[in-house]
Structure formats: structure tokens, C-alpha cells
Design a protein that fits this description.
alpha/beta, Aspartate Aminotransferase, domain 1, Aspartate Aminotransferase, domain 2, 7-stranded mixed β-sheet, 3-stranded antiparallel β-sheet, 13 helices, about 45% helix
């Protein structure tokens, strides 16, 4: 059976450019520590720094601002840790000196953001509307709430670039302006957006931006934390001077090479725009096919300008997510759901719950660089039958 992969928002297949670059690295036989001064070490260092240049170029920042990590989860945890340590050391701490740190975040943030923050700080939640979007004034309110109720200025504000479940773009520019005005550090999770819409971190000038290679066609197991120029933070991982003493541990050179190649493939704005147009057309067909079935709705911003081009999130009345996923899988279609029974979590998607919709009946479809019209057609031909069969069983 031909398989049809519609889960690029979880992980996108390795781009040919990344695979070729990693194969070329393997062919060189250079497996040296980039921190060594011998010839092999210098060769590894050159490969690592070329990859850093290419990733930094995609995101509009200087290479020195970019710290390679094991993925976005580590990058997020590093940002939270660094911000809280800076808050503890700050002479500008105001209010009650015994007050615990506060982090501001919406419930629609990814689990890594929410859980890393809740483990180390009190979280003040920013409300969202029915599309999953925050209001910048809500961020301003939450910062004020931290000061008035908790007696301290927040150590950090989180604002994702775009939502990973429904694709809604967030007002990151407006939130960044508020954080600069009020003197609060800002972390932006750009994982879902990177490689699908322009992500100009240089223009945004947030304090922290986390990205991952695997959602833009790079290898899994590598990501990056992008730091605002001049920002110094205490590293999460200690025990070495790698990454300019900002992240200890031997650098993953082959993964960095693959990340750099994938970033280099997308550095041409024309290619990024072309892939976004193709994704938009395919997700439009997915929406249209899904809406031919009764009692199916689309979650997120209805305006294409307000959402990522490659994600469609559906609500399906009358059936739960897991049997729909299994039925599609038997038809050769891979998809995802925010339902608790179809994910690693025992709880349904907090994103959809915050939006006020039923997370147990959601279906997320996402396309990417390798998606074909045949993949879309496979969903369109199988979805009505899968849902119809399940509903007939219930009745």
C-alpha cells in the first residue's frame, strides 16, 4: 500500500539537500571534536561554523547569536532557566524580595514551554480567543497582574510565533514591543513557523527564539536557541566551554551540517514563498474535502493571512479521534490529533481546551515540502468513508 504522510507539523521528512550534506560529511571520515586544535578538529570546526552561518542566515541573525542544542525542547528549557537565573540576580527586582518568580504564558503554548515554566515559576496565563490567538493587551494585563498580585515583575514572557495545533499566527511584533517597553524578557517559540513563513528574528529582536531542524526538513535531534545580541545568560547545561560557554557538551556536527543544508535550501525567499503557496493550495483542498462531510468544522483563523499555510485542524462531530486516525492509517494516511487517547499525554490538547472546543474529536493534517497531490487525494477519498463507517457503528 502506498503511504500518504500528512503529519509534517510533527516531523517533516529529511530534505534531499540535508541528506546529501550529511552523507558528504560521513564520506569525509572526519569525526573529530570541533574544540581540538589538530587538523581533524579544525575541519570539524569549519563544518560546524558553516552550518551555523547558514542557519543564522535563514533567521536573519548573526552566527554568534545562535546556540546549537539537542532540539527545541532543550532550547526552551535553556531560555526559561537563563531568564529565571537572570531574574534572581537582577538588582532591579521590585516588590516583595521573597516573592517567587513569575512567567507569563498562554495555555496554547507547547508543552515544553508550559512545563519548563511551571516547574520553576508561577505561571500567569494569557487568555486566547476562539482562534487560539492572544491579545497583546492581554500580555500587558498579565505583566501588571504579576506585579500587583504576585509582587514582582515577570522573569519571562512566552509568545509563540504560530500555534502548532491550529496554525494561528500570533502578534509577536506587538508583544515584543510591549516587553521592551516594560523591561521584561521575551521568549518566542518559532518551531511551528520556521520553514513555512518568514521568521526574521533580527527584525523582531526578541531575547530568546527557539527553533528545531526536524520541522523544516532537517534531521531530528538538533535545534537552536537564538539570543538577542548582547544578552548573557547562565547555561542550562554545564561541564564544558562549547558554544561559547553557553551550552556544554560535544557538538552534534553531522546533525548541524544537515540543519545548515536544510536552512540553506530555504534561505532563498522565492523558494520559501513557493513552498508556502503550494502548502496553502493543498490545505485548501484538504479543508474542502473534509467539509463535504456533515458536522465537520475547521479550527483556527479562517483568514489565510492569519494562519500557517501548512496546517489544518478539524473538529469531527459524532466520533472520537483515535478511531478516525486508525481508519485513516488503514487507508494509508498518516495524521495527528490533540486527543488524549491518540497522543503521549493523558490529557487532551490544552490548546483546543483554551479555545473552548472539543479536543477529543480533533484531527490535525499538515503538509510540507514532500507532500504530493496524491497525498491530498488519498485523504479526500478515504475520510468520508472512515467517518461514515464510524458514525454508523455508533448509531
Amino acid at each position: 500500500m502506498t503511504r500518504h504522510y500528512l503529519d509534517h507539523a510533527s516531523i517533516s521528512p529529511l530534505r534531499p539537500e540535508a541528506a546529501a550534506a550529511m552523507a558528504e560529511w560521513a564520506a569525509t571520515g572526519v569525526t573529530a571534536d570541533p574544540g581540538r586544535v589538530h587538523t581533524e578538529g579544525r575541519m570539524a570546526r569549519a563544518m560546524l561554523e558553516e552550518a551555523r552561518d547558514r542557519v543564522a542566515g535563514l533567521f536573519g541573525v548573526r552566527p554568534r547569536q545562535l546556540v546549537f542544542t539537542s532540539g527545541a525542547t532543550e532550547a526552551v528549557n535553556s531560555a526559561v532557566w537563563g531568564a529565571l537565573r537572570a531574574w534572581e540576580a537582577s538588582a532591579g527586582r521590585s516588590g516583595d524580595p521573597t516573592a517567587p518568580p513569575v512567567v507569563v504564558a498562554a495555555a496554547v503554548e507547547r508543552a515544553a514551554v508550559r512545563e519548563a515554566s511551571a516547574r520553576l515559576a508561577t505561571v500567569v496565563s494569557v487568555p486566547v480567543d476562539g482562534t487560539g490567538r492572544i491579545d497583546p493587551d492581554g500580555v500587558r494585563w498579565a505583566i501588571g497582574e504579576s506585579r500587583s498580585v504576585h509582587g514582582t515583575t515577570p522573569a519571562l514572557v512566552h509568545c509563540q510565533w504560530a500555534n502548532h495545533e491550529v496554525g494561528t499566527l500570533q502578534p509577536v511584533g506587538a508583544v515584543a514591543a510591549i516587553c521592551r517597553e516594560l523591561g521584561v524578557l521575551l521568549h518566542v517559540d518559532a518551531v511551528a513557523a520556521a520553514g513555512h513563513v518568514p521568521v526574521d528574528c533580527g527584525a523582531l529582536d526578541a531575547d530568546f527564539v527557539s527553533v528545531a531542524a526536524h520541522q523544516l526538513g532537517g534531521p531530528p535531534g538538533i535545534g537552536a536557541l537564538i539570543l538577542r545580541r548582547g544578552l548573557r545568560i547562565e547555561p542550562l547545561l554545564v561541564g564544558g566551554e562549547q558554544e561559547r560557554a553557553r551550552r556544554a557538551g560535544l557538538e552534534n556536527v553531522p546533525a548541524a551540517v544537515g540543519f545548515g543544508a536544510a536552512a540553506g535550501a530555504l534561505a532563498d525567499p522565492g523558494r520559501l514563498a513557493a513552498e508556502a503557496r503550494a502548502s496553502s493550495l493543498r490545505t485548501a483542498h484538504l479543508r474542502a474535502a473534509a467539509l463535504t462531510v456533515d458536522d465537520v468544522v475547521v479550527y483556527g483563523d479562517p483568514d489565510p493571512a492569519g494562519r500557517l499555510p501548512h496546517i489544518v485542524c478539524l473538529g469531527i462531530g459524532g466520533v472520537e479521534a483515535e478511531p478516525v486516525l486508525l481508519g485513516l492509517d488503514q487507508a494509508g494516511v498518516a495524521a495527528h490529533s490533540g486527543s488524549s487517547c491518540s497522543s503521549e499525554s493523558l490529557e487532551p490538547s490544552p490548546v483546543l481546551e483554551a479555545m473552548g472546543v472539543d479536543a477529543e474529536r480533533s484531527l490535525r493534517l499538515s503538509v510540507g515540502w514532500s507532500t504530493t497531490d496524491g497525498d491530498v487525494a488519498a485523504f479526500a477519498s478515504s475520510f468520508p468513508g472512515v467517518v461514515g463507517s464510524l458514525r454508523s457503528l455508533r448509531s
